[in-house]
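Write out the 3D structure for:
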Amino acid sequence: MNNKSFLDTLEERASQFRRMIDEYEKDCNSLEQERVDEERYARIYDPHHPGYPKRAKSADRKRDNFKSALKDLKLLLARAEEELASFISLPLFIAA
């Protein structure tokens, strides 16, 4: 693999992480809105109340799972960007 294709691979990996992070953030926002809507519809806002909507609980759990995955993705993106920055800072005369 030559330097150009390796650089392209690193850039593509970072780009994929950014796209995934954007999608997961949108999903988190959507699930948060779903939870709020369900609470408003039921007029029950306490998750410990016996009549609390199951869909609100489910949306909350899913959102928490996405948030956990987002943390991991952000760490992976930071690592990918560090790799990219260190590769770019290498002298250009190094040939594959």
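The two ends are 7 Å apart (CA to CA).
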